[in-house]
What we know:
Number of strands: 42
Radius of gyration: 60 Å
Oligomer: single chain
Distance between the termini: 91 Å
CATH topology of the largest domain: Heat Shock Protein 90
CATH superfamily of the largest domain: Histidine kinase-like ATPase, C-terminal domain
Shape: extended
Strand order of the largest sheet: 2-1-5-4-3
Number of domains: 9
Largest sheet: 5 strands, antiparallel
CATH class of the largest domain: Alpha Beta
Amino acid sequence: MTAAPYVPSEPVSDGARALQILESMPGFAWSADPSGRFTYVSPSTLAFLGQVPEELNIAEDEDEFGWRRVVHPDDYDRVAARWRHCLKTGEYYDTEHRLRRSDGVYRWFRNSGRPSRDGQGRIAQWFGTTLDIDDQKRAEVALHDREKELSQLVSMVPSHVWRLTPEGEPTFFNKRMVDYLGLDVADTDRPEMSRMDALIATVHPADTARFRDTLKRSLATGESFVLRYRLRRADGVFHWMSSRAEPLRNDEGHIVQWYGLCHDIDDQVRAEEAVRRSEQQLQQMIDAVPALIWRTTPEGTLSYINKRLMDTVGVTFADLTAPDAARSLADVHPDDRTRVEQALSRSFATGDPFGMTYRQRRSDGSYRWTEGRAEPLRDEAGSIVQWYGVCVDVDDRVTAQEALHDRERELSQLVDLVPVHIRRLTPEGEPTFFNKRLVDFFGLDLTNLGEPNISRLATAIETLVHPDDAASLLATVRNSVATGEPYSMKYRMRRADGMYRWVDGRAEPLRDQSGSIVQWYAISIDIDDEMRAQEALRERERELSQLVNMVPSYLWRLSPEGEPSFFNKRLVDFLGLDSVGTDKPDASGLAAFVEATVHPDDAARVGEAFTRSFLTGERFSTTYRLRRADGVYRWVNGSAEPLRDDSGRIVQWYGLSHDIDDQLRVEAALRRSERQLQQLIDTVPVQIWCVTPEGGPAYINKAMADYIGLKLEDFDAKGGLPSAIEAIVHPDDRAALQQALTHSFSTGASFELKFRNRRWDGSYRWTEGRADPLRDESGGIIRWYGANIDIHDFVTSQEALRERERALWQLVETLPIMIDCVAPDGEPIYRSRQLREFLGYELAALDEIGKGRLAGTLDAGVHPDDLADVKEDYSHSLSTGEPYARKHRLRRFDGEYRWVDTRAAPMRNAEGAIVQWNVTCLDIDGEVRAQEELRSARERLARASQEASLAELSASIAHEVNQPLAAIVANSNACQRWLMASPPNLERAQKTVERIIRDANSAADVVSRIRALFKQSMGTRTSTTLSSLIAEAHNLMAEEAARRRVRIGVAVDSSLPLVALDRVQLQQVLVNLIRNGMDAMDAMKGDKALEIRVHRAGDMIQAEISDCGGGIEFPEKIFEPFFSTKEHGMGMGLAICRSIIESHGGRLWAETNEPRGARFIFTLPINAQPGS
């Protein structure tokens, strides 16, 4: 929750921007009027305090301030007094105190304020900041108390802490352990035994040997010492302890100390009082150290030394007087003398007190650290009249300080190495310290666990304790913090790897002299293994109970006299009655049970066996039939043994009856099965054998005996396996077989080998032998079982197959064609010798160019003009699986490009997936060049034929024109005659003139048509449907198609729009294309089909005429004038057709028809306008 800032009655003069900057400051800001009432408090301050501005100005008592409720009670009087003083005097306000957060937690703050004055110097406003220094204060307190806390930590750990030398001798017991045992380390120093033996004497006699053996093993191996045992308390009472110790190693890895912890499982030992006694004795010893006193004149002339100084230093007054009567420094260590002299001279000159620590010689000549201090005695005027000095022997203190530093390091190591999780809490329960083991256990830095305004304790428990335990642990800790009572609880903590482990957590408070809690010290011991063991034990008890009732046997118990006292559930269910269900008043319980449940034929024998066992105490065991609840008798195997007490007397009989009815039937079946199995082994067409772990022959089946013509007895018992190998294995294979068998026998590895075995007729045949060991429960080999399979025919066929492969390989390598095999993705995996020699490099050379083998081959070998089309066709075939065929130029090793015919087809597996592409590449450069020369010759011939045809065409044209011209001349002469007749016959002349006009128009039409064939002349165009025009052309060619046995199929889209066209010219194009298609199929046999298909393609109408003839070799060249593929053609038809189509705004081209033939396609625009 963020409260709105308090707005004063007069706006702040600094403006909105200053207010924005002020409210974004990381600290708290405020302002107050001269009387101390707040006029502004920043929102962050109000949010922290959980207050509104008015609450900070309203006081319950007029002598108090309204903010009393948020200041710590111990700080309020001091802070209020200082604030009143500053308000009165105008002095700067600066103080440290605790403020209560909205959740009730107090934190330290530094509060500073400065007055703002008006022009007359009067205070107009107070402006201040409040900075959170809680972490700084706590750090300072923690820093000052560190030394004391470390010492308290070891002493206050609610466990026994001890240290051993690398050899196992005790060197340290913490106070709790000393108090518990009633002896310290010095007490273990006894002439008749070692210190460790003296310590072991406190261990319970029943645990002594185990304690000693475990400790010796840890000392010898460096492994952790972990043990539970009973330890004698000072009053002679033994308590169970859980003890653990870890070694401390130096940088070289050598053990320098053993640190251990012994946790009282029965009750925690408190050592606090012993620590205080030790500190008091130490303080008395320090206070009893004698002092050396001396006096000098104001100028420094020695005037007095006390006797203790003379006795201690071993000098007289004269010895310490210098020739100039000044203090002689002969007793000061030479290395310190100059420094002491300078300090004394400075003090004598300035009057400042003298204080220094230096080394001073003793009467025995040794130097000891001394702390010298001197202060002047002054008269009433302030003049120095005497100097009084004292020298205190601080050698022990200096040495102790050095030892203390060492001790601190040892204590720190002890806390971090002790095998327990240690932590310290504030009186409010907030964690302030974790030892290294706990930090390592959690795997994170717990010092930054808390967040502002949130309890670090709650955060730690929520983060690190199992969710099912977190709430109860938090409640327990808070209850202890509130009541001051120690707590002990088992819960689960999350380890660094995310696993939760059970721990036994305990904590006790440390109190000051007034009884107030100053710290909480807590430990948690990992008891996960113990909890799991206890759970396993409980589970074991449940399992045992279930086992008794669920075991597939009948369990019962009898008294020493043989009276039934317990039947398990299975026996009760089987019999249909319990242990008292057969009681009879005139018979014993056992006799009644036998009579009621045992088969009459077995009852007497069972009763006698029971009687004999009861009399002799011998084990009862017999087989008999027991009646089931449904009246059916089943065979059981019953046995019972007595349970005896320490004196050997029988206290109970425990028996078991196992239903063996099925077993007896199974055994009978098993015997039958064994006979069948033996028959199977002897008849299976596999040689089965068995040898001992050492390789001695133990068994061969009948098939093997018949195969080798020998029996097991025929092998030399002394020779064993070598003699068997000598007898039946080919000489060339014996060594390998012996070596393989020896390896298997020595390592236990499976045996597998192909070798030649001698058959009964003396011939050697290839055999595959395999063997595996049979092992017992401990893994030891008890038998080797093997089988030999005759693979002679298989080996022979494999050899023939390999010979066949070699022949095929030689065939591929010697064929006069280049062969390439590629993977499904197109990458080459094999190339024949012919192809490698043609290209001039090996396949492996492509792996070094930094691109794929396929890309490398194409880029390096295919002619640049063909490369794009080759890659496109390759990609198409690889993606669709269609065969590939293309002619292109390929670069030979000498740099010459040669035409090749490349074809590729996929090889597929049974599922139809491509597993490999097989490629052939045939050099057709000679054929291509020959075809090129042939085409050149044909072109020359065609030009000659065209010249002759042109002459013939000219004569034909002349003939066509001469006919109407001759008619015109004849009609003109006739007209002349009719006009010259007397009288002129005008009617006849009129008719003759009409004939002349008709013949003239006919001649003009012939000329126009010829001109239209060779020029793109625009004839008369009308809007019509192309379907009707195609129907007319189809009707025109129907008779010729029937004669040439060509089937014409027409498919025209019914929704085609009208097109503006010249019907005569378009009909001429259609007839020409249809006739060309029929000409192309003249040489074909079988079905001849010509397809006409018309459809719309965008803003064009597209017509296709396709045949299944021989196809087109040069699709573009056929449209050139005078180029013809027909023996007697003129080469003008297709040129005229293209000219007509292009004059209509369309396009005409040819394509290859799949799978064979040609397809002519032309388009006409839909939006062409009809001509006039």
